[in-house]
Design goal:
By secondary structure, this protein is an alpha/beta fold. The chain has 13 helices and 16 strands. It has helices spanning about 5-10, 15-20, 25, 35-40, 60-70, 105-115, 155-160, 185-190, 225-235, 275, 320-340, 350, 365-370, and strands at about 40-50, 55-60, 75-80, 90-95, 100-105, 120-125, 135-140, 150, 165-175, 175-180, 195, 215-220, 245, 255, 305-310, 345. It has a six-stranded mixed sheet, with helices on both faces. It binds zinc ion (ZN).
Length: about 375
């Protein structure tokens, strides 16, 4: 009793199960003082794969740790299950689509594993016989992966069912306690930005999802004006050319397009640069308003694989204020977290020789961004 008082172990099962590797559990001399409730619960973790759109639910902390290091987002705890009951929830895996499925229905397990490429992965967790907290299941036939979603949050269930083709399927099984969701890491990083959205559809030239993201391209606006008036000038020029972001000297940011849209910020690159930069597929780009500028610069793939950031700056007329550079630092950190990998940072003149941006005054910062992802090395 000298190590951990019994009263301490009687605290909520949620807290105890969060401390997954509590050494006292492995020590047989302490077994008697562990309360039945504390000993018999299992925390189920929820992960999200931004590449495929799939949610994964697991009690395996090792699987959780491996996946979060492979780009899956930690979405917190999904719910708390009993460690055992007479109602197991089975986990199935589809070898064709890579998707997981969970069910208490043994008939469904038999039907799925007899065809449709499904294999049984065993018991995922157990349903609570006391039915403290329902786990809701919903279904979306319109998407390829992640067709089923599970949550203890009645509000999330309701909101999802009201949009994008989701249908409620009711209570799938029961938990002892509800989950504690955690926001994706990029949400907090975006909240740090002084950002305003002004999305204009004319600048959107196609879909640029995560698998096609490779570069962050830095530009100078070559005009000293507010982000809003620069955006308006792009619009009045025909609304074809724009970057995703404009960063002002005071560090405020105007976002013109969502990250998953193709913007015409890079224009034509030197002939051969599509292959050099690995951006050969231009087919998702509608190419509206594009006019080839000569046989020396024919390649147009960069837009389909990049995010464009414009800094308000004119070459040869002063430096980049710290507030502006810090805003670019934070913006890059947000973009990296959004995709869960680091895109290669280049400037416009790397893509097309003869461009003025970025300026000579930026050269040291560019090298730092490429090495440290910040304008200075710390
Ligand atoms: Zn540029």
């Amino acid at each position: 009793m000298r190590r951990i008082a019994a009263a301490c172990l009687a605290i909520s099962s949620l807290m105890l199960t969060a401390m997954t590797a509590l050494p006292a559990y492995a020590d047989s001399t302490n077994v008697q003082i562990v309360s039945a409730t504390a000993q018999n619960t299992t925390t189920i973790y929820r992960l999200y794969n931004p590449a495929s759109g799939e949610h994964l639910y697991t009690r395996d902390t090792n699987e959780f740790s491996v996946l979060t290091h492979r780009g899956w987002y930690d979405e917190g705890t999904a719910w708390v299950s009993p460690s055992w009951s007479q109602t197991p929830v089975y986990r199935l895996y589809n070898r064709f689509s890579g998707e997981h499925h969970y069910t208490t229905d043994e008939h469904e397990v038999r039907v799925l594993t007899s065809r449709h490429h499904w294999v049984k992965e065993g018991i995922a967790w157990y349903s609570s016989p006391n039915k403290e907290v329902p786990v809701y299941r919903q279904y979306n036939p319109g998407i390829r992966i992640g067709q089923h979603h599970y949550t203890t949050n009645a509000n999330e269930y309701k909101i999802n069912n009201a949009r994008n083709g989701w249908r409620g399927e009711g209570e799938a099984w029961y938990a002892i306690a509800a989950g504690k969701p955690k926001a994706h890491p990029y949400v907090a990083l975006r909240a740090k930005l002084r950002i305003t959205e002004d999305y204009r559809s004319g600048f959107n030239h196609g879909v640029k999802n995560r698998e096609h993201q490779k570069y962050i391209m830095l530009h100078d606006t070559e005009v000293n004006a507010s982000a809003k008036s620069i955006l308006n000038s792009w619009q009045s020029a025909g609304a074809f050319v724009a970057a995703h972001f404009i960063v002002e000297k005071d560090g405020s940011i105007l976002q013109v397009l969502p990250l998953d849209a193709i913007a015409h910020h890079a224009g034509f690159g030197n002939t051969g640069h599509n292959a050099l930069y690995g951006v050969t597929d231009e087919s998702r780009d509608d190419r509206r308003g594009t006019v080839p500028i000569g046989s020396w610069a024919r390649d147009y793939g960069m837009n389909s694989y990049s995010i464009g950031i414009e800094m308000v700056h004119v070459s040869g007329r002063g430096g980049y204020p710290a507030a502006q550079l810090e805003a670019v630092d934070n913006l890059i950190a947000y973009i990296d977290a959004y995709y869960a990998f680091e895109s290669r940072i280049i400037d416009h003149k790397a893509w097309r020789s003869g461009n003025s941006d970025t300026s000579a005054e930026f050269a040291g910062y560019l090298a730092n961004y490429q090495k440290y992802r910040k304008h200075q090395p710390h």
